[in-house]
Model the fold of this input.
Amino acid sequence: MHLAQFIAYLLQALAWLIIARALVSWFPNARNNPIVQVLYQITDPIMVPIQKVMPRMGMFDFSPLVAVLVLIFLSNAIARA
Done:
């Protein structure tokens, strides 16, 4: 496996973790779970800067969507290189 493919797989895995984080956010009490805390620690470096730039629109937070789209775009670009 080439390094580029490995990085592309890591970016795809991070995209899936962000999707999981978005789904878990529907359950406020889940933040107390140690696995969910690790999930937030892994995804915070991506999510926090995006959330600072993109304000919430009412009760909707589109930052996970933006993060996943960017990660998938980067993953595809790296995989093709």
User: Anything to note?
Assistant: The longest helix spans residues 3-24.
